[in-house]
Amino acid sequence: MNTVVQLCYFVAAVLFILGLKGMSSPRTARKGIVWAGIGMVLATVATFFHPDLHHAVNYLLIILAIAVSGGLAWWSGKRVPMTDMPQMVALYNGMGGGAAAAIGAVELFKAVSQIGATSAQQLAAQKDLGLEQVEQFAAGHSHVGSLLGADHAVLGISGALIGAVAFSGSLVAWAKLDGRLHRNQLLPAQQLVNLGVFVATVLFAILSYYTDGSAVIIVFFVLALVFGVFMAIPIGGADMPVVISLFNALTGLAVGFEGYLLGNPAMIIAGTVVGAAGSLLTQLMAKAMNRPLTNVLFSGFGTATADAGSDPEGEMKAIQAEDAAIMMGYANQVVIAPGYGMAVAQAQHKVWELVELLQERDVSVKFAIHPVAGRMPGHMNVLLAEAGVPYDLIYDMEEINAEFDRTDVVVVIGANDVVNPAAKNDPSSPIYGMPILDVAAAHNVIVIKRGKGKGFSGVENHLFFADNCRMLFNDGQKAAGELIQVLKKL
Ligand code: NAP
Fold this sequence. Notes:
Layout: H1 2-22, H2 29-47, H3 59-79, H4 85-115, H5 120-127, H6 131-140, H7 144-148, H8 150-177, H9 190-210, H10 214-232, H11 240-262, H12 265-288, H13 293-298, H14 321-329, E1 333-338, H15 340-345, H16 348-360, E2 364-369, H17 379-387, E3 394-396, H18 397-401, E4 409-413, H19 422-425, E5 444-449, E6 469-473, H20 476-489
Parallel strand pairs: 1-2, 1-4, 2-3, 4-5, 5-6
Bound molecules: NADP nicotinamide-adenine-dinucleotide phosphate (NAP).
């Protein structure tokens, strides 16, 4: 049976890798998700037949837990609006880290209970040992590290630490994305407090290796959870994508480590794959923000000084849908720069209808996608794919930036931070240094948004006050609808 189980784990691991490969392109992403899902089901079912699964294991409880949590995930996954997807991703990511930490906790407490087994019979029963072996065993296994073995103990404790940090940190990220926690927040002397908690957590991680009691392990877990919260609290502003991908990478790593502790190859491979993918994404996101990771984690950027930056000069100039549609209808090239507001308005279908009308009039239309537009990596690509926009109309920031000065009209729909020239021109701005879509270089810019609301980072946008910029104040979907009506009559 063990060979069959190991074979299932191997197939599951291959499916995870193929799944991840599929997810690298919007064309194959759906197939990739299905493959990874089949891999997960296979690995879960195979585990029920694992020879190490003790006869004392309560199958009913396990099945009940899988049914309840699986049912909840299915139900919430079906009804979650697209705009709440980033929160959901943060939450599920946190659950992964929490599960890894829970495995670590169970194994550490089990080890402690074996060390502390008061009677020789108890220990003999737990370890399947003969009575005379017990004395020997107890003498050579006086703390967690010696009982579990150095490699298992170190990886188990590290996995528990990383998993707990990813769990509580992801919950803070979820609360920030869901608007339940203020995005730009600092505790007094935050960096110093963080450093103190971090050092204490590592110290208790080391002590957990040498302990023979539960108290140290409990303090270790509490500290790790607190550190996760403190690590995520000061990160706000435009930096959230970096930290979300970082927690994703940490969750993968924690799962991989705990997989080693359990001797479960499917967990090791799945964890490593997620850890590697998450690390690459973290690097990409940090690069997109033009900031080293250490700077994101330790500078409290976009928090204390979020409302800093110089005040813009001039005033916003409004435009009506009729005039905006005429400008677009008679242009040679129009570039659409979507942002989070397009997701809120669910305007992607109307936007694509608008683009098709422009194309019928021989206007060249392109989409400009900033890597951190929206609230999750790839957010805009997902929305545009859902609306059926062909991939060859979609351009990355680096590709499109050189084209703006040859563009007649840029339509910014629900984007703010990712088109804010303060990031380029204003050293006093908290978002200074972040690369942006250089839309101000176009001949005309039309910005569709509901009012004078700021972007995620809470920074005023100088673009809206520029001479070549006109504001079309409306909900994204309604504005696109009005533009369509006018264009149809042109
Ligand atoms: P943004 O800076 O958050 O701005 C969105 C704008 O959309 C707002 O100014 C809002 O203005 C407008 N809006 C909201 N609802 C709308 C509606 N129904 N119709 C039309 N407009 C609407 O968005 P962004 O430019 O896409 O920038 C993304 C930001 O989120 C960056 O700071 C990024 O770092 C951060 N972030 C990104 C990720 C990621 O992975 N992509 C994750 C977390 C955070 P009004 O209120 O005036 O309408």
